[in-house]
Write a structure and sequence with these properties.
With 366 residues, the protein is an alpha/beta fold. It is 22% helix and 22% strand. The chain is built from 6 helices and 18 strands. Helix 1 (21-32) crosses helix 6. The radius of gyration is 22 Å and the shape is globular.
């Protein structure tokens, strides 16, 4: 690692923010390309331990329930117990990966802002000091920005409200009347776990759920990613890949549908002190409202660079921010899946290598 300059910033070629799937993929490809950790690049992660967002998942989400966890580049995940919590399986796998490739992840480190520095460098401000970087890979994902919709009367509800990000597992809902809000995989998983413990469950979504029959192969996957990628190219906030694939039908889901657990109601119009209500006069009493309403990209620290388009998103050309070729976003939009994150990490490093090779080394502030 280079010494601090007079302005307190350490000079590196690349800063990688985030050590989830996308960040570790980028770090791996940097290392393979000859970049030395803590000399040429640094990986910063705000989580307390390895595992990315997986470490925060609820214990009942076992590895066997995980849909399509794709191995990190260069090291397979083998022999995992499907009955073990995915947070433990993937946490251990990521920790082993970081050690095996000597990635030297710094944690816990909070990145507070990325702004224009001096001499053509980016100034990355963090809780462990500042870095002056020639390029940046942003791999911060979405887990830190749970989305909470707002509805009239929400503040009057006398029960409890929580988001998927803080889901405690099914035992916490024993004997309670639970309204689950959201049309994604997390909502259906929660309902199927909670139903036989809760006094009652109600499922509400803004749109009619789309169920996906049959196999989901490469052709379908490419089509789904292309739809998400088109939004990113237009500078709109990305949708998740899952949001355009539909909900998979398996035996457990079919059983839950047959038993009425996954009978969906349209979105309520307001929240009352004792539950939720619709304008047609229908009401449902509730002790808990569980918001399985997704997440937004955690990119507020990039705000000083003014990368957002009028549509609210960051327009990308591949993984590169259209407004600044030094900035790459991986695990964002079309690369939010585990296999997409791997590919994005590789693609970002290839472009960064070309950028650094074809640009004179800027003079950092001294």
């Amino acid at each position: 690692m280079n010494d601090f300059g007079v302005h307190g910033a350490r000079d590196v070629d690349v800063v990688v923010i985030g050590a989830g799937q996308a960040g570790l993929s980028a770090a791996y490809h940097l290392r393979r390309s000859g970049f030395e950790p803590d000399r040429d690049f640094v990986v910063l992660d705000h989580a307390p331990r390895p595992g990315g967002a997986w470490q925060f998942r609820w214990a009942s989400l076992t590895y066997g329930k995980v849909h399509g966890m794709h191995a990190l580049p260069g090291r397979e995940l083998v022999g995992a117990d499907p009955a073990r919590p995915s947070s433990e399986v993937i946490g251990d796998y990521f920790a082993d990966y970081e050690e095996a490739f000597g990635l030297r992840v710094h944690r816990p480190v909070d990145v507070t802002a990325v702004r224009e520095g001096e001499g053509g460098r980016l100034l990355v401000e963090t809780s462990e000091g500042a870095y002056a970087a020639r390029a940046l890979v942003n791999a911060t994902g979405t887990w830190d920005r749970p989305f909470w919709p707002r509805y009239p009367g929400q503040e009057t509800f006398r029960g409890s409200q929580l988001h998927t990000a803080k889901y405690p597992g099914p035992e916490a809902f024993a004997g309670q009347r639970v309204v689950v809000v959201g049309g994604g995989a997390s909502a259906t998983q929660h309902l199927m776990e909670i139903a036989d413990r809760a006094a009652a469950t109600t499922w509400v979504t803004r749109r009619e759920p789309v169920w996906r029959e049959g196999p989901f192969g490469e052709v379908q996957g490419r089509a789904a990613v292309a739809r998400v990628e088109e939004r990113v190219r237009r500078g709109l906030p990305p949708q998740s890949v899952v949001s355009v694939t539909g909900l998979p039908l398996n035996d457990a889901v079919r059983e839950a549908r047959a038993g009425g657990v996954l009978d969906r109601l349209p979105m309520f119009d307001r929240i009352t002190p004792t539950g939720v209500a619709w304008d047609d006069g229908r009401t449902v009493d509730a002790d808990v409202i569980l918001w399985a309403t997704g997440f937004r990209a955690a990119i507020d620290h990039l705000a000083p660079l003014r990368l957002r388009e009028p549509g609210g998103g960051i327009r990308l050309e591949g993984t590169r921010a259209a407004r600044d070729p030094r900035i790459h976003l991986v695990g964002y939009g079309p690369s939010a899946s585990t296999i997409g994150a791997n590919r994005a990490g590789r693609a970002a490093v290839a472009e960064i290598r070309a950028l650094l090779r074809n640009s004179p080394r800027p003079v950092a502030a001294r």
